[in-house]
histidine kinase
Amino acid sequence: MMVNFRRLASPSFRSKVFFASFLCIGIPVLVCLSFYTYLTRDAVEEQAIMNAKKEINLVNENVTKILEDLMNVSNFVQIDTEINAVLKSKARDGSGEDSHTYEAYMEDRLVRKTIENITQLGEKSYVTILLTNGKYYTNYSVTEYNPMEIFKKDWFEDLQQIRGYQSLWVGVESTEFAYDQLNHPFQLSVARTLRDTNQQIYGYVVVTLLETKIRNILQNKNNQEQILLVDQNQTILSTQNADQIGEKLEIREQLTNKDTSTIIDWKEKKHLLTTKKLSFNGWSLVSIIPYKQATSNINAVFSKVFSFLSISFAIFFVLLAFLMKRITKPLGHLDKVVKQVQTGDLTVRAEVKSHDEIGKFSRSLNQMIERINGMIEEVRNTQRRKRQAELAMLQAQINPHFLFNVLNSIRMKVLKFGDKDSAIMIQSLSKLLRGTIDNNHDMITVADEISLISDYVHLMNMRQKHKVNLLKEMDQPSTEVMIPRFILQPLIENAIIHGFHQSNGRILLKTRVEEGELEILIQDNGIGMDPETLEKVQKSFIKPKVKYKSNKGLSSIGLANVYERLHLTFPLRPSMEIRSQIGEGTTISIKIPLEGDGIVQGDVS
């Protein structure tokens, strides 16, 4: 029991990997599947609503087309000027009896022919033009229906109240036409008045459509779905079940005046209710389908996907456990090898022969063991070489001092023989060498820097035919400012080599402290630079990636080095400006903002 407890308290690497895999893969999968199941309810409902809207929109297009055809027929009679003229003429005849003249015959023929033509394009409809004097025109036989019965209709009073181009949509009625009453028991009509310029009624137009034309459109392949056409009062005008026509819609309380899709409870079941309002007469299309039926196909797909994922991940975890056992078996062997190495046994070797990462680790472990003994000897050799390097460093520190002492002895001997120029030259060389080799001080005062420059100019004058006259103007505060060592020497060298171009010359070096800035001015009377060369030189040290060198002016490499060292040394960003003209020399102006009391101490290292 104690052993089992310890194993539980300190699980193996294999158990940890399997548990981590379950946490990183299994739990997210279970959460995703649960979340997926939860979200599919909304997705199913949304998809069912989209399908219902798509279906009712398609029905709406077909129903609207038929009803618009009825309205267009009634509009045509009102708008056509030729027919209007004939009808107004006939309405003014108070007798209402047909005239037997040829002209009257042609006018009647024109009206009847026009009625037949405008009803041939769309669905079959019955057109009645009824004048106030009792005269009428129809596209059907009066044996089917007497047009004079229109005066007795309940809605006729409402028809006389409409104005302008308005139409009266008559709800569902029993079919009045004798030949269609058996197969088409209901009809729908649209009526409008015919008025003269004084807005007086001289006639009426009634266009009638058999309800079965609408019912055929409302037929649906899904027997569970019911689509109805209802009027403003939720009276059923058309539906698949003819027994419901003319009755009030049972769920009328749940209808709205807007196009909506919603889930309702009806007959103790959930139903999907979709409403689509017609755009021109206030009627609406209503779709009612059981929710379970609406979502059955979508739910079936989601259920299959969920089942497939669940089975797949169950198989995955079984395979994971089996593979994890085989994969981690070599790790147990490596664990034993490492423990033996910890005891100091460097003769042991790992025997994993696979070519995967564990095999590579095994070979690396063997190589590591083989190198341990060699590394011990390598450490001894490294310590020995380190002591030798320290001795060489000590010797390197002694050699410069020996060199300076020898140069000083030579200078004294030369001076003893009266060669002052050579003695001064050796002294200047010794000072320059000492300043170059000295690694202990990166920062020196302006006074010391100018002293080194003086020695440099002196050496240059000794080694070349043409002499350079160095003029120095310094105020006392500027001489104490600390600047990087050899920061001005490249500028003096450029003036001598490029500015004078193997001719005599003068260099003015001025330093002063003013308004918290150290100003350094180096001015020569050399050959100068043209504007194009000057622009390239200025760009080269501001953007040191551009390497440019002119024989007529400054070395951009030296300028870039000076500019970069100034910016690295001083935190307040110094500036360097170059001015030059052909034949008038070159002037370099450096301004270094000072900190605190105006004396930059710098980092002496």
